[in-house]
Design goal:
By secondary structure, the protein is an alpha/beta fold. It contains eight helices and six strands. It has two domains: 154 residues, Creatinase/prolidase N-terminal domain (Creatine Amidinohydrolase, Chain A, domain 1); 30 residues. It is globular and about 65 Å long.
């Protein structure tokens, strides 16, 4: 969302959303949250990069540690898309392991991916091996389990956190609706000329 003069402090909203995810993580006793669903990656970080494309392939994700960094694993090397976002502590290029991107080398790259996630869990998990995941292929899940991680359903964490709205989020939603309604008027007038 780009505003020359935002109606609210966007960084405050970003940090509140991330805190909401972490609160739910604590309630579910998980040390990490791995997000591939692009709605969730946007909510956690407010960083975007080809959201439709990335919704079709496991090519972009976010790792949120309960008591450590947020790591954006992005498609290709485009750190400028995440510059100045207070929600991202580390930017990395995802070792993509989906077939369209790597062909028959998927097993090689999924092991590299799992090693990085396992390393983050070991560094920041305090011995807790519980990793919540919103969505991930069986290939990715198998590789993470092979590293000794306990995988936990992450949708309950993300859905219940996103259901809560702050006053600032409600203001942003109203601004979005106003823009949408303003855009519909010319369409309506074109379809129903007076």
């Amino acid at each position: 969302m780009e505003f020359s003069d935002p109606p609210v402090d966007l960084d405050k909203v970003r940090l509140e959303r991330l805190a909401r995810f972490r609160k739910k993580m604590a309630e579910h006793e998980v040390a990490g949250l791995l997000l591939f669903n692009q709605i969730n990656t946007r909510y956690a970080t407010d960083a975007t990069n080809m959201q439709i494309w990335c919704s079709h392939y496991e090519t972009r994700c976010v790792f949120v540690s309960l008591e450590g960094p947020v790591v954006l694993f992005d498609y290709a090397d485009h750190p400028h898309l995440a510059e100045d976002l207070p929600t991202i502590d580390d930017y990395r290029v995802l070792p993509a392991f989906y077939f369209f991107g790597v062909g028959n080398r998927g097993e090689e790259f999924v092991l590299e991916f799992a090693a990085q996630i396992s390393d983050l869990m070991n560094r920041y998990g305090g011995g807790n091996k519980r990793l919540a995941i919103d969505t991930l292929s069986h290939t990715g899940c198998d590789a993470l389990r092979a590293r000794g991680l306990e995988l936990v359903e992450g949708e309950q964490i993300t859905e219940t956190a996103r259901a809560i709205k702050s006053d600032d989020e409600l203001k942003l939603m109203q601004v979005s609706m106003n823009v949408c309604q303003k855009g519909c008027v010319p369409c309506r007038n074109t379809l129903n000329p007076e």
